[in-house]
Fold these 3 entries.
Entry 1:
Amino acid sequence: MQFDDVILGRRSIRGFTPEPVPRELIEEILALAMRAPSSMNTQPWNFFVITGEPLDRIRAGNTERNLAGVPHSREFRTGAEKFTGVHRDRQVGVAKQLFTAMGIAREDMEMRQDWVLRGFRQFDAPVCVIVTYDRILDGSDDTPFDCGAVSTALVNAAWSRGLGAVINSQGIMQSPVVREHAGIPDDQVIMKSIALGWPDETFPANSVVSERKTVEEAATFVGFGD
Ligand SMILES: Cc1cc2nc3c(=O)[nH]c(=O)nc-3n(C[C@H](O)[C@H](O)[C@H](O)COP(=O)(O)O)c2cc1C
């Protein structure tokens, strides 16, 4: 696959076949992802790659606690809890695309709740990768930035091998559950989760291509003349 095919073809995958993912393939993908740049080459990231029983326990624990209304315990700053303006518009935009694809009506609270629960179950993916960073680097904005770089590289590397993934915060809403069942030590901060597996081609949301603002909107060119 060429670079453009990977970048333009990749999209978040939220429906997977039950087929297992070989450990060697995940190792290959992680090795590719870790070519990502990082501040001063600190490589602050670590990965807890979970499947089988422990992952099922995490799914159950997340679901149970979220349904019980336990407030989220993410280990990173989330900023304003509610988006406004263009950010809210984009959030609603992709949600509409996903709900339309899934046939979930705006007023169908049951189906909407089902969709949210799916996220807490890591979209029933066969594998979940928890991205953590070394706590000693806590406080530097470079560290989460570096985790973002490696996570993006990971989902692109996965795509290049035919695997699908979705980076998500839903899987780590209840960090103590993840910490316990994945055996994550205290010197690691939980940053993000990535659901990983073989895309289910029949799952409607998998075909959603989300929108992007234009280069014109995003970029300011300085010193280029007209
Ligand atoms: C930091 C981050 C957190 C995300 N959290 C979630 C999530 O909790 N649930 C979800 O369904 N998608 C989540 N996503 C996926 C985004 O919704 C998705 O990347 C975005 O809409 C663009 O779509 P695309 O990945 O298909 O290009 C997250 C992505 C990132 C980068």
Entry 2:
Amino acid sequence: MAEFDLAIRGGTVVTASDTTRCDIGVRGGRIVQLAESITGASREIDASGLLVLPGGVDSHVHLDQESGPEIRMADGFESGTRAAAAGGTTTVLAFAKQEKGTSLRDCVMRYHQKAAGQALIDYGFHLIVSDPTPSVLNQELPALFADGCTSFKVFMTYDDLVLNDRQLLEVFAVAKREQALVMVHAEGYDTIKFLTAKLEGEGKTAPYFHALSRPQLVEREATHRAISHAELIDVPIMIVHVSGREPMEQIRWARGRGLKVFAETCPQYISLTADDLKGDNMDISGGKYVCSPPPRDHASWAAIWEGLKDGTFQTFSSDHCPFYYDSPEGKLHPKAKTSFRYVPNGIPGIETRLQILWSEGVAKGRITANEFVALTATNHAKMYGLYPRKGTIAVGSDADIVLWDPNRKETIRQDILHHGADYTPWEGFAVTGWPVMTIACGRIAVEDGKVFSRPGDGQFLRREISPYVRAA
Ligand SMILES: [Zn+2]
């Protein structure tokens, strides 16, 4: 019997901290040896000329999520994880969303059913708390936490999800008690409502006005409010999908006060702008870019790059939230033509996250390859209790590896992607850097765009307490 199931030979291994020429020996789905030369494997992969990176960890994806009675999400766990793997991501953290008036525990059971036997790569769940009743706060959350869902997300906007300030404080208090990490969608509900009504009153109903209904100050105000609540409770929080300088300033201010406030940003905030929402001459095609917070402008891109470089941001996630474009269950829902407020919120991006950050970041000299690995894999695993099993290349870690060609030039196009959506917001976007092979738990998941993993290959991940949260 061969000593190794797999050897990856001749590549340059890049982790968050080091860049080393070495071979990798894999057995039983895990990395068991790093050495100058490894021979005697059942299968050898020649990685010469390529970079060998930890598989991406995408800690913010929405799959098969209920999105209202007439809207259907474009990806379930099968197509969503297939697309993830094709894009070099080997672990996803998806959301299990509580419907108001229902048990959170039942919701999580339902998401387990949606994912089991479907996922091609490993996955975990964050909980979305939309109805923090006493039984949810005192019984369900602690039990689910013990089952390995050690983070939950709260929303400060959206009719079906918004929590008021008292509810936010109550959820934060539970997070403090359980040492859970709370993720916050920080946009101010009432201000958005006010601006939406005003814009509609002026006949400004095209998708573009979605961006004007949620300017940066809406995000800045909610970010500040979330930080104040977190300070009161003395609990760490993660501000997700930060779009520009104004919320970043609040986060830096909080850190200056010694508060544990973490932050995430996404590809849309370094590569799309509000002008994309104009579509063709302010028509409904701008709906392809409707997401919240909306993409901003070039000055915001520059601010985000500053934050990616200086440690303001720990994670770079996709916020993959896929809807069809040309479908009455998607962006072209009949009511969407009457106002931007009915356009389903979210864009697909699970498959293009790494390429966009590499191309705009590493290839253009803004960040190093090691920083890229930290932002796309290592920090996610650390933040959400999966490290060092996930997010790095080390003896004992799962053999989740992507072979990366840093020089390969490609153009992102819908017809080469594997996701369920019928469009990509990055159609025609040229990138340098592309995943050549994705290995998930020691198995070749994807090679040159061809997917070998099968539904059910991915397993549910019970996560530990986040070390960023764990009390000293
Ligand atoms: Zn969100």
Entry 3:
Amino acid sequence: MDCQPGHGRSVYNWLINNQPCLLCDEPAQQPYPLCAACETELPWLQERCGRCALPMAIDGVLCGQCARRAPPFTQVEAPWHYGFPVDSLISQFKHNARWPLGRLLGELLGHWLQARFDDGLPRPDCLLPVPMGRKRLRQRGFNQATLLARWLGTQLRLPVDEHMLLRPVETRAQQDLDARQRQRNLLQAFTLAPRPWVQGRHLALVDDVMTTGATARALAQLLLRAGAERVDVYCLARTAKPGAA
Ligand SMILES: [Zn+2]
Ligand SMILES: [Zn+2]
């Protein structure tokens, strides 16, 4: 191999250019398998609730729910609306085990979080994947939140604890329930591992999609009651209010 100045860069460029975009199959020409055109077209979440990231008409104000009663978590970070094509990419990742799609979304979430840390968002002490019930884990074979947390942990150099949060009780499929029923369903579902290292720590929950926020609220409450100082939530996408566009 030639070691002339400038050669390293062209080899690097060749590596970058050589990956096809996972969405359109054109050369990605980026350090990850997504071309700039497809990246721009992703449903980036702009105006959002300053606390729970619910899509809003104006940015930074609180949504009705957070204004009425502050949620137990401090901050939800989500780069995207749960809209096309992110919804379909997440679904293929989860239901068809298309890990490269999950890996790509996870990497972009990592870039997003790093930019937020650079802007002053405090880095957490540890990442905690939202646990999955044993039965569903057996059916699917993997927990997408655990994979995301592992990828984020490596990229952002943050520890991941996969065993602190437990889900011993099987819950009914949440889609069929209204917000109040979901909350009731979830309060009983989660528990902490024996003697969890929680006291005084800043923890961040990791999940793929945040819908009503009931899961995040239940888990954040559990951690704060056990002595956690702060709980944030990192997810790929945030849905609008049920029934909203
Ligand atoms: Zn593309
Ligand atoms: Zn809110």
